[in-house]
Every structure is written in C-alpha cells, then in structure tokens.
Amino acid sequence: MLHRKPxxxxxxxxxxxxxxxxxxxxQKRVDxxxxxxxxxxALNRYGEIAQQYWLEIxxxxxxxxxxxxxxxxxxxxxxxIIHDVGDVVGNAVGNAYMRSLQARTKMLLSKAVQQYKAAxxxxxxxxxxxxxxxxxxxxxDHIIRNDFALFKIRTYIQNxxxxxxxxxxxxxxxCLRDKKKFWRGFFSNQR
Length: 191
Hints:
This protein is an alpha+beta fold. The chain is 32% helix and 19% strand. The strands form two sheets. Strands 4-5-1-6 form a four-stranded antiparallel beta sheet, sandwiched between helices. Strands 2-3 form a two-stranded antiparallel ribbon.
C-alpha cells in the first residue's frame, strides 16, 4: 500500500492569520484551463470558471482575502490571506457557513481550497455533462514569512505565463532539474 506524504506542515494551524502561497493542479497535469499564447494565458471556458470561482472565495469566508493569482493551463497559483478573527466583523457566509469564526476548524486554508475545487468541478461537470475534468488530490502550500518572500512569490506568479516553458507543472520535455535551475537564476536576479 502506497502512503502519501502529508502536504500540510505538522501541528500548524492553517486558520492562523497569515499569507499563504497555494498551487492547485489538475489531475495528471492535463491542460484543461487554457493555453499560453505569446507569453499570455488564454483562458478557455474551464479556465474562466476557475478564475471566476477563485475571485469568489472571499464571498464565502469573510476573514479570507486574495492577493496575486494566475490561472495557468493545468494549475492555479494564488496568494490567500487569512486575517485574524478580531480584524473582521461578522460570520462566514454562503455555503461555507460556520457557527462561529471562533470555533472554526484548524484547516481554514484547506477548507477554502477544497470548496473552491469542488465548486469548479461541479460547474464544469454540469456545463459539459462530462466527468473528465478533475483536480489532483490535495494542493501545495507555502507559508509566506516575510516581505522578500512575498515579493519573490508575486514575481513568480506574474511571470508564470511568460516563463511557462520552465514551469515545473508543464509536462514538456525540459527536465525538472533544469526548470529549478532556471527559476533559481530568475529569482537571484530580482533582488
């Protein structure tokens, strides 16, 4: 039996106020969401749905805010900000109802991403009457700890369509080692 490596940081409260860089991939990294044309992302209908529902996340969780994001051919990169409960008045709304923000689970980030993935999948399946579209299980997250890391991640997100050839999520023939080397060099020139 194959055991998956846990993606979340052990004993970390993912409802804690903070900035989180999230990557959500399609199953088998299939380019369901559009394509890159001349260094720009051209969303197809699925990509438009993925973008629309991403922008709606704060409507369902009133202590959640969005920062930089991009929908790519087979994944979504975004920065999700979770505010301290004391910074926001009111309760979660919509289909993310919780009895009290004080009593929320320790996995608010996971809950927001899970709900996003489910809504996109449901909309695409209803639209196409076809169950081929799927997300990869779980998602990648990185806790953003300082302004320089935030700058680097925003730069990565903004340049992702331009540098799609070297994106680790691109199923092209460039090996992962060379892709990592490219991005290390790219970021070392950003300071």
